[in-house]
Every structure is written in structure tokens, then in C-alpha cells.
Automatic annotation (TrEMBL):
GO terms for molecular function: phosphorelay response regulator activity; transcription cis-regulatory region binding. It holds the Pfam family Response_reg. GO terms for cellular component: cytosol; protein-DNA complex. The keyword Phosphoprotein applies. This is Stage 0 sporulation protein A homolog. Keywords: DNA-binding, Phosphoprotein, Transcription, Transcription regulation, Two-component regulatory system. Residues 131-227 form the OmpR/PhoB-type domain. Coiled coil: none annotated. Residues 4-119 form the Response regulatory domain. The keyword Phosphoprotein applies. Gene3D superfamilies: 3.40.50.2300, 6.10.250.690, Winged helix-like DNA-binding domain superfamily/Winged helix DNA-binding domain (1.10.10.10). May play the central regulatory role in sporulation. It may be an element of the effector pathway responsible for the activation of sporulation genes in response to nutritional stress. Spo0A may act in concert with spo0H (a sigma factor) to control the expression of some genes that are critical to the sporulation process. Residues 131-227 bind DNA.
Amino acid sequence: MAARILVVDDESRIRDIVCQYLKFEEFSCAEASNGKQAVEMATEGDRPFDLIIMDVMMPFMDGITALRMIREKSDVPVILLTAKGEEYDKIFGFELGADDYVVKPFSPKELIARVKAVLKRVNGGEPEKNEEPYQYKDLVVNPMSYEVTIAGKKLSLTPKEFELLVCFIKNKGSVMTREQLLDEIWGYDFYGDSRTVDTHVKMLRNNLGEYRELIKTVWGVGYRYDEE
């Protein structure tokens, strides 16, 4: 069955273009013109959406507020569209649970690539059954339960932050470029924005607190997880 995608934007032209490309890729497409309508459509009905593409700046209810309300009832993947490219906006969206972030004006082909990447990750990104918990001092990472604890206290990491941490641990001691991390965690490289990686690393470090220095910045290249 084709993935069911909700496109939310107050500009009908944008919705038409995005839906046209989605249908060409054999996705099922529904539309909403504001955040309030999106919340109603995303949280009601018999069959849930597989993914939501939602603009941030809209009348009646903006995309950030809509995302917050949707997250109270659903973990459906959400890609935000916005004309703003500042790091603060990205961090705010990611902290609320957005899965990806596309800055307007965007290429429809780029958006479709990101849609496919998010759906692939959600549908096929479960941890391996034989993955054992990782421990360093009182930091414990459990791939099976998606839990990270420090001294027994559970950290509130987003799925992307958790996957990023596990990726660093698996490649401990090796330098990971931003492009490699985009390909590993987000499932795309050419369409990726390296600032997405930097934003998530910053959020992950903040959550790790006293262990933030485990993730080293290798200037001009990327990052390295190092216990030394």
C-alpha cells in the first residue's frame, strides 16, 4: 500500500507542486491549508498518515504549534518547510520532534529525496536484535530500548540524537565526516545540509552534559567519538 502523506501549506501552488511530485512517485497525497486543519486530519480518522510535510509560517495556526499538538498524540514523521534558515529555528523544530527541515525555496526533487529517506529510516531503521548495551563509566546506551542513562537517570533524546550517538559509538575513534553522518543517519548525502548534522550534534552534546566532550570536533572534517 502506498505511503499516505499529508501536505500542509497555506499556498495552494506549493501544495499542488508537492502533491504532483508525490503522486508521480506513487505516494498517496492529502492536503491541508493551515495548522489547525492539519492537527485535525493527523489525529483523527481510521488510517493515520505515514508522513507529514508542513510549512512553518501559516495563518490560523503555525506549523510549530501544530507540530507540538500532533506530537501529543502521534509520532508520525514530520518534515518542516520554512523560509527561515537560522540555526535557532532548526533547533526549535528538532526539539519538538521534527524529523527533517527543508528551507524554502526548495527543489521538489530534493524534498522527495528527503521524504524517501525519512520513510526508509522509519520503516527499516530498527536496531539489530543482537546489539548489546554500551557503557562508559555511568553512561549507558541501550540500542534495544532506545534509552540513554547517566547515573541511572534517563536522558530525553530525540530519535535522531539517539541514532547519532549510537553511530558515533559504533565508529569509536574514527573521524566521521558530516556527509557520512548524513548518509548513515538521514539516508541521503547529495541533498543533505551539513548544518543539520551540526545542529543535532550540538543538541546531543547539551543532553550528554558532563560527557559532552566524548564527541570531539575535528575542524574542517567532522566529528570523532573518543573515550581518551
